[in-house]
Amino acid sequence: MSAKTLYDKLWDSHLVKQRDDGSALLYIDRHLLHEVTSPQAFEGLRLAGRKPWRIDANLATPDHNVPTDNRAAGVAGIEDEVSKLQVVTLDENCDDFGILEFKMTDRRQGIVHVVGPEQGATLPGMTIVCGDSHTATHGAFGALAHGIGTSEVEHVLATQCLVAKKMKNMLVKVEGELGFGVTAKDIVLAVIGKIGTAGGNGHAIEFAGSAIRGLSMEGRMTVCNMAIEAGARVGLVACDEKTVAYVKDRPYAPKGADWDQAVATWQDLVSDADAQFDTVVELDAAQIRPQVSWGTSPEMVVAVDDSVPDPEQQDDPVKRSGYQRALQYMGLQANQPITSIALDRVFIGSCTNSRIEDLRAAAAVAKGRKVAANIKQAMVVPGSGLVKEQAEREGLDRIFEAAGFEWRDPGCSMCLAMNPDRLQPGEHCASTSNRNFEGRQGNGGRTHLVSPAMAAAAAIAGHFVDVREMLKEEATA
Amino acid sequence: MKAFTTHAGLVAPLDRANVDTDQIIPKQFLKSIKRTGFGANLFDEWRYLDEGYPGQDNSVRPLNPDFVLNQPRYQGASVLLARENFGCGSSREHAPWALDEYGFRAVLAPSFADIFFNNSFKNGLLPIVLKEEEIDELFQQVEVQEGYQLTVDLQQQTVPRPDGKSYSFEIDAFRKHCLLNGLDDIGLTLQDADAIRAFEEKHRQAQPWLFGAIK
Ligand code: SF4
């Protein structure tokens, strides 16, 4: 038998039927749901008189619309009536169809991509879908995971399958050791800067190499999370002992004899040594510096000690006008040093960077320092209720609050500003989220994507700074 | 699903690369629990000068005269000419819903983001990939000829130009079949219910932990 990539193996082991016309039916093991992309799917089921195929494959939680403060009143406390209706609708749909949901007042509620792995609902070797493009996150476990549209949410509910077409294989290999103060977020931003936001279109990206193996599961999730920003629906990391250790004893993880059998099965969740990839991209980890996005697309990114690029230097006319438009929207000048960009708000959170390790990294920078006077708001939004509890046990909330950060309840929050947390027009935000599109964090808002440590450092300085310098001062002080 | 065979209509050019779904339909409109009502808010932040919110009377909002879809010559356009990586960003199907409701039946671009591409087919909106040079030619044609129309012929897989030149495009056989006949995906898949059940049983035997854990 010919050598297979990890993606090939996952595809083959879930193939129900290859149809003559080139499409295939792929079996789906886990389906995650949130309030934004599911209501029309449930409505569709009802209209057609259909029932979910397999209730126990589904897990739901509201995340996009939930406010991140004053949560005691639950759904009733959501002031925005339209947001409230969406959350109530998810509650009703899950109750009606018998789907398990972590409701707003449940301590397990959180961003769906943080909750799945945390609960062991995300397991190696699974196929996982959700009506959300950042489902790529779960690929960090050696699972085939990707976002789907609402019609597909309905399709998966009704049939437990997806009509799919096999993607191509891309290998992104990051070898070497990351420098001091450089994180998973910087790796993935550097990858996107290199291959562009369309670079991974039509591909499943496997992230490999010693720098990826060296990352914790949290770091691998950060990397896979942003595969979609490189155009790939799927990001993957091979399963290893870190994966197994992370999953062990999680509430929905296999137990007893099942566990032993599962672990044995998961050993095969790696690409064969001689597997062929359609595209290979290599990066040297040692060369990666802390990244900051300057424009309105995640590929518009440079290192913190660089300057904003000059559109005139771009040969491609479409790219040049894109750069010009981005500079205008962002209110920046060509060749301006990144460290000269003053900030108004700082957001630490989102499915990219709201896990415990992210909060620890930010707290390490915030500890004993104060948020700069020009920062109107610096907020920390844990990815789930359980992450919040853990952080509080470690005293991170007190570090943040002493430094002048707001400590919030879990949800998507200012990542996309569907809840009340948002930027005002023209404001610059250092954000640990994944998208810097125009208006993403609020109409007219200007987003700069960074790692949690870089966001915390920016909050302290009031503008971008190289977190390596800030931490070095500390080490020598 | 709405069937698609051929369509002829006025072309509107959107000369930007990487148009993302946040731009196609900004997130405040995703709060709706319905499938309809998104057309008036297509490209909301570019189209209007004020900030839009759900449930507003869009007819009284100040239009941005510089935005291409607001120009008189493109009123009634039903074919959108776009640049590379159109529809990148989120998985929200609200993006094709909004394009469809606005009146677009086809989008022509050198490349599309994968999820958007997929979602479009489910809604009878045809995304067509043409070569970069062909898209460039079309941008030039639209620019110089007011009232420029194109025909999209799904059966033939061609986009004939008014001057007789014609471009061809690729499409999966399955998607073509579904679009031509307006078929419902779910109904089609359920014809294979026995195969799904058989697979599921085998899968359960091999990996029992994948079943029954979440209740
Ligand atoms: S945190 Fe942001 S990117 Fe992640 S699921 Fe929520 S809105 Fe989407």
Low-confidence segments of chain B: none
How many beta-strand segments of chain B? 7
Helicity range of chain B: 25-40%
Strand percentage of chain B: 5-15%
Order of neighbouring strands in the sheet with most strands of chain A:
5-4-3-6-7
Radius of gyration of chain A: 22 Å
- Principal-axes geometry of chain A comes out as globular
Sequence-ordered SSE layout with sheet pairings:
The complex is a heterodimer of chains A (477) and B (215).
Chain A (H helix, E strand, L loop, with lengths): L5 H7 L2 E4 L5 E4 L2 E4 L5 H10 L9 E3 L20 H17 L2 E2 L10 H8 L7 E4 L13 E4 L2 H10 L1 E4 L3 E8 L8 H12 L7 E6 L1 H4 L3 H9 L8 E3 L4 H7 L8 H11 L12 E6 L6 E3 L7 E3 L13 H14 L14 E4 L7 H11 L10 E4 L4 H9 L2 H8 L2 E2 L20 E4 L14 E4 L2 H10 L5 H10 L1
Parallel strand pairs in A: 3-4, 3-6, 4-5, 6-7, 9-10, 9-12, 10-11, 15-16, 15-18, 16-17, 18-19
Antiparallel strand pairs in A: 1-2, 2-8, 13-14
Helix pairs in contact in A: 2-5, 6-8, 12-14, 12-15
Chain B lengths: L5 E8 L7 H4 L19 H4 L31 E3 L12 H9 L3 E4 L4 H8 L4 E4 L2 H13 L4 E5 L4 E3 L5 E3 L4 H9 L3 H6 L2 H14 L9
Parallel strand pairs in B: 1-2, 2-3, 3-4
Antiparallel strand pairs in B: 1-5, 6-7
The structure holds iron/sulfur cluster.
The site of iron/sulfur cluster has 13 residues of chain A, from loops.
What this model shows, in words?
The complex is a heterodimer of chains A (477) and B (215). In chain A, the strands form five sheets. Chain A has a five-stranded parallel sheet. In chain A, strands 17-16-15-18-19 form a five-stranded parallel sheet. The longest helix of chain A is centred in the first third of the chain and has 17 residues, at 81-97. In chain A, 33% of the residues lie in helices and 16% in strands. Chain A has helices at residues 6-12, 39-48, 81-97, 112-119, 150-159, 184-195, 210-213, 217-225, 241-247, 256-266, 317-330, 356-366, 385-393, 396-403, 452-461, 467-476, and strands spanning 15-18, 24-27, 30-33, 58-60, 100-101, 127-130, 144-147, 161-164, 168-175, 203-208, 234-236, 279-284, 291-293, 301-303, 345-348, 377-380, 406-407, 428-431, 446-449. Chain B is globular, with a radius of gyration of 20 Å. Chain B starts with 5 loop residues before the first strand and ends in a 9-residue tail after the last helix. The model of chain B has no long low-confidence stretch (mean pLDDT 95). Chain B is built from eight helices and seven strands; from the N terminus they run βααβαβαβαβββααα. Chain B is α/β, with parallel strands linked by helices and 215 residues long. At the A-B interface, α2, α3, α5, α10 and α11 of A face α4, α6, α7 and α8 of B. Bound molecules: iron/sulfur cluster. Residues 63-64, 111, 113, 132, 134, 350-351, 412, 415-416, 433-434 of chain A line the site of iron/sulfur cluster (SF4).
